[in-house]
Automatic annotation (TrEMBL):
Signal peptide: none annotated. Residues 636-677 form the RING-type domain. The gene is HLTF. SMART domains: DEXDc, HELICc, HIRAN, RING. Transmembrane segments: none annotated. Keywords: ATP-binding, Helicase, Hydrolase, Metal-binding, Nucleotide-binding, Nucleus, Zinc, Zinc-finger. This is Helicase like transcription factor. The lineage of its organism: Eukaryota, Metazoa, Chordata, Craniata, Vertebrata. One of its GO terms (cellular component) is nucleus. Residues 279-482 form the Helicase ATP-binding domain. One of its GO terms (biological process) is DNA repair. It is found in: Nucleus. It comes from Strigops habroptila (Kakapo).
Length: 886
DNA sequence: ACCGCCGGGTGCC
DNA sequence: ACCGCCGGGTGCC
């Protein structure tokens, strides 16, 4: 294989310049920041957009109208076929013009002008969504009837009815779309009862997800259970479920089935959802969604696909070893691809390059996996399209076998209209890794991805549905499934029927998903055996007793903090002092680890006092650092999710930036803090300091003489014992406090341990190095990794470790579990033992209790709806009480 | 006849 | 369009 970035083809540990100076967040705009974190859903423009809030739409009623001017257009329509109404304000004859298009987007005619005059205002002001169906008469040469349904928000109904009335129209009561056919046939069959307008069933996200998973529970002996061995070029043996996935993916790339909901009927291809028909055979998706749970090896399977179904349904050919002549040598080492091209290009014409788009956090994982899984006798050109010096030459890119890039680069390039090399190439295959990244249809990344040109299209994601069916549209659209690429048809035929609980809606969704998706969860079974047989995982709790001296410090800080917090309770100002309370708890947690951790924490500023703006700013930044670094996984009280792009208000409450901006926008001019009702102003909001700087203020004390602590002693005792029993055993030492990790470095050095470190402040390149060193099985490679709890994304693979020492408990048990999964995952050969150090009679023990409650809550009925903001507040207050023994 | 009626020309917005 | 509408041709019974 040859790596085109860096330029030489050999590859060493440190040669991926995949980080460059790109991640310079110091002057980030919010959108840069959020997209770089894959949080584009939270961008302000999205939340404030008046775009359809289609979930709350109700059916106002229906109206019969006519479509005229059929003579002049090529679009044809069948009886009962859906049509789209589209405003055409630029029409020179009538500024109210409304076009009528068929499902294919071809114009059929216009709405008659008198009616158009009534509809124009409604459509322009987005008061209602107007959908048409041509009930009959589709063969008419000049005009045809159209049955229109008006959908909108309850509060707009009056305005719409008024507007229609002014033009002499009146809506008929709702008539369910699915009743159309029968209605026209049996028009005299007695009174018609209006169908219920509102959904009978509304699915919660959890129900939806579980419905989704049920789809794949009982895979019969169909194409999804055949197995296919990887081609010779795949260096790794595939597990049974991976061979199944490979077989399925290859068959999807090579088959020529009709896409879902299409039938062949007397020389026509007929869409059963829209009743649209055409002569031309609709193209099937050459690809689909691989939605296996995290950890089942989607990356490996995809690499196997690329190598096994390389071109024209054939695997990657063996590399002919080039006859070594001086001439060739020169060419090879001059960094051009010409010689390789001669040797390895294939008879097939057309595109041969695969584009892989992934979040930055997993880019290095792809690089590793290619390195690991491509057989050394085979040659693959891989180009990492990243960094400011990336090649701008489309023909260079199309000559590669594989081009790897990130969603950000994709979106950035696409933003520079007309100058995106990625968009000038016709790809053989496009793979979107962590495909749910493009969930938001309005995000730049989504638009950029949807506009890529490629034949075979794949989406890899562990969570195809995050919250609602809406999440699926971008993915389906990316797959170029007719007619869903247009959001209107997706919405009318799938999304609304499902969310409104219309009969058959869920069924449609299921058959759609079933036909293009493969999903196995960690619990899925193949021939009675679980897909993943992971070694055992044990969690031990080791209690620590503080020394007399440590206990004294702890008790005095606790006494002081408890007094302050009691005062907040009696004054009823708990929420106003939330950051201060977290500060107290943080200090106690730090004291459980090492007395030196909390020396520097800013002396609490309980008194507001009169301060200069600079001092206020600094105080707020400090408070926010407290909230964030306390590892409490704060939720934003607006969206009830984890904080994304945190900002702090003047009243010291932390929210997601987009959320609080939305509050300010909607409540203007007198917005109030959602938590304490203080005055809220956009210009007073203070942004989050950069990740990695949070703890840096505590750094730089290493010159002091180092002293140990009870916890460190316990750790070292365990490490030394472990080394004695098995000198090659590797372990992770995990803490939320990077300063604590720094302190631990001292005894590790003293006792002669080889160790590495991975924390959030490290550059991408350093991280890759640290991970590779640690994962190496070479003699002398590090046996200990100091790991900060939150470092690294989900892709992080630390399977070399079979022991984990969790130095301090986290608020959120899920964060701990995620951390354990980094070594307890596919590839782990040993049983994993996790040791949690918990100081007796301390805040840590109380945290365990709270964790237990949270676990029970999470395991319990999902059906319970989202708690309200006030319920969350109450829970938090109770937690605080429990934590400090009040 | 400043009407009615006839029949040809014509046709979206 | 096997319509509606327009506007020119025409005109007792």
């Amino acid at each position: 294989m040859s790596w085109k970035k860096p330029k030489d083809s050999a590859r060493g540990c440190s040669q991926y310049n995949i980080c460059r100076g790109e991640r310079n967040y110091s002057r980030f705009s919010s959108s840069d920041f959020s997209t770089s974190l894959g949080l584009e859903d939270f961008s302000v423009s999205d939340t404030s957009g008046t775009e359809e809030d289609t979930d709350s739409a109700v059916l106002y009623g229906t109206l019969r109208g006519s479509v005229v001017g059929l003579r002049y257009y090529t679009g044809i329509v069948n009886n009962n076929e859906m049509v789209a109404l589209q405003r055409e304000p630029s029409n020179p004859y009538d500024k109210n013009a409304v076009k009528v298009n068929n499902v294919n987007g071809d114009q059929v005619g216009h709405i008659k002008k008198e009616l158009a005059a009534a509809l124009a205002g409604i459509m322009d002001n987005k008061l209602a969504l107007i959908e048409g169906v041509v009930p009959y008469g589709a063969k008419n040469a000049f005009t045809m009837p159209v049955q229109m349904s008006f959908w909108g928000r309850e509060e707009n109904k009056e305005a719409v009815l008024d507007q229609l009335k002014r033009h002499g129209f009146k809506l008929a009561p709702p008539l369910k779309e699915c009743d159309f056919a029968s209605k026209w046939i049996s028009a005299r069959a007695g009174p018609s009862y209006s169908a219920p307008v509102h959904a009978a069933v509304q699915l919660t996200p959890e129900q939806l997800k579980s419905e989704f998973d049920k789809l794949f529970e009982d895979l019969k002996e169909d194409d999804k259970t055949c197995e296919l061995e990887g081609a010779e070029a795949v260096a790794t043996l595939l597990l049974p479920h991976q061979k199944q996935a490979l077989a399925w993916m290859v068959s999807r790339e090579n088959s020529n089935d009709l896409p879902p909901f299409w039938e062949e009927r007397s020389n026509f291809y007929y869409n059963t959802l829209t009743n649209f028909a055409e002569k031309q055979r609709p193209k099937n998706v050459i690809g689909g969604i691989l939605a296996d749970d995290m950890g089942l090896g989607k990356t490996l399977t995809t690499i196997a696909l690329i190598l096994t179904n390389f071109q024209d349904g054939k695997p990657l050919p063996v590399q002919k070893i080039p006859t070594v002549t001086p001439l060739r040598m020169t060419s090879v080492f001059s960094g051009t691809t010409s010689i390789q091209s001669v040797e390895t290009k294939y008879s097939g014409d057309g595109p041969s390059a695969t584009l892989i788009v992934c979040p930055l956090s997993v880019l290095s994982n792809w690089i590793d996996q290619f390195e690991q899984h491509i057989h050394q006798n085979f040659h693959v050109n891989i180009y990492v399209y990243y960094g400011s010096d990336r090649s701008r030459d489309p023909s260079f890119l199309s000559e590669q076998d594989i081009v790897l890039t990130t969603y950000n680069i994709l979106a950035t390039d696409y933003g520079m209209r007309g100058d995106s090399p990625l968009h000038k190439v016709t790809w053989l295959r496009i793979v979107l890794d962590e495909g749910h990244t493009i969930r938001n249809p309005n995000a730049q990344q989504t638009k950029a991805a949807l506009n890529l040109d490629g034949h075979r299209r794949w989406v890899l994601t562990g969570t195809p549905i995050q919250n609602s069916v809406k999440d699926l549209w971008s993915l389906i659209s990316f797959l170029k499934l007719k007619p869903f690429t247009d959001r209107e048809w997706w919405h009318r035929t799938i999304q609304r029927p499902v969310t409104m609980g219309a009969p058959g809606g869920l069924g449609r969704l299921q058959s759609l998903i079933r036909s293009i998706t493969l999903r196995r969860t960690k619990k899925s079974k193949i021939k009675g055996k679980p897909v993943l047989e992971l070694p055992e995982r044990k969690v031990l709790i080791q209690h620590i007793t503080l020394t007399e001296e440590e206990r004294q410090i702890y008790q005095s800080v606790k006494k002081e903090g408890k007094a302050a917090i009691s005062r907040f309770f009696s004054e009823g100002t708990v929420l106003a002092h939330y950051a201060d309370i977290l500060g107290v708890l943080l200090r106690l947690r730090q004291l459980c680890c090492h007395p030196r951790l909390c020396i520097n924490t800013s002396s609490s500023s309980f008194s507001a006092g009169d301060k200069t703006p600079e001092e206020v700013h600094e105080m707020l930044v400090n408070k926010m650092k407290l909230v964030l670094s306390s590892g409490s996984d704060e939720e934003c009280a607006v969206c009830l999710e984890s904080l994304t792009v945190p900002v702090i208000t003047r009243c010291a409450h932390v929210f997601c930036r987009p959320c609080i901006f939305e509050v300010i926008r909607s409540e203007q001019p007198n917005a109030k803090c959602p938590l304490c009702r203080s005055e809220l102003r956009a210009e007073h909001l203070v942004e989050c300091p950069l990740e990695g700087e949070i703890d840096s203020s505590n750094e730089k004390k290493s010159d002091q003489e180092w002293i140990s602590s009870s916890k460190i002693n316990a750790l070292m005792h365990a490490l030394i014992e472990l080394r004695r029993d098995d000198p090659t055993a590797k372990c992770l030492v995990v803490s939320q406090f990077t300063t604590f990790l720094s302190l631990i470095e001292n005894p590790l050095k003293e006792s002669g341990f080889a160790f590495t470190r991975l924390d959030g402040s490290m550059a991408q390149k350093k991280r890759v190095e640290a991970i590779q060193c640690f994962q190496s099985s070479q003699a002398g490679s590090p046996t200990v990794m100091l790991l900060s709890l939150k470092a690294g994304g989900v892709g992080l693979n630390l399977t070399a470790a079979s022991r984990v020492f969790l130095m301090d408990p986290a608020w959120n048990p899920a964060a701990e579990d995620q951390c354990f999964d980094r070594c307890h995952r596919l590839g782990q050969k040993h049983s994993v033992v996790i040791t949690k150090f918990i100081v007796k009679d301390s805040v840590e023990e109380n945290m365990l209790k709270i964790q237990k409650k949270k676990r029970e809550l999470a395991a319990g009925a999902f059906a319970t709806k989202k708690p309200s903001a006030s319920e969350i507040k109450q829970t938090k207050i109770n937690e605080i009480k429990a934590l400090i023994d009040l």
